[in-house]
Amino acid sequence: MTTKDKILRATFLLLLEKGYDRVKVGDIQERMGIARGLPYKYFKNKSELIFAACRKFFYDRYFIDVDYSKISLKEFIDHVEFALARMTSLDGVEVEMLKYNTLYSAMIQHDAEFKREAQGEFDKARGVIRNAIKRGEIRDLPENFIGATILAILGRTSYITDTPSNSYICRRMMEDVRRFYDLIKK
Known about the structure:
This protein has helices at 3-18, 25-32, 38-42, 46-63, 73-87, 97-110, 112-134, 143-154, 166-184, and strands at residues 89-90, 93-94. By secondary structure, it is an all-alpha fold.
């Protein structure tokens, strides 16, 4: 792993641990035991560093090899399940899905560039839904409804029950997405 990758990993883990508004570049330097200016060798500023870390750990590690124009919605859901399993462990460190989703939401709300990136990713997913409707895989329902429902299931940031385990949360997310798919498929 390169120094830049280590900085991105440490940044992302600190964002999950402390929250979007609380991470300082000094925290990253302290966590890694690196020189004060080293992150600035790779990133112009804190915003660019946080954006790069989130881009990598929200999208690039999990969805970079997916051809959205060719896959079915079922295949997309299968890929999401594969990605979800990989998201919960970051190089041996357990990642809590609720914190992961909370950070994702905070990034969309606070970072205009990340919001544009997220919109681009959502557009790709809507394309999968649109193609699934055209191919007759699923019912002809509004694609925004289908996409919003899937996103709401996968983007949960809390549960009303006692604090559930990470594996329970991930299992329930996938069970609920598959149930929804069963409701809309032809």
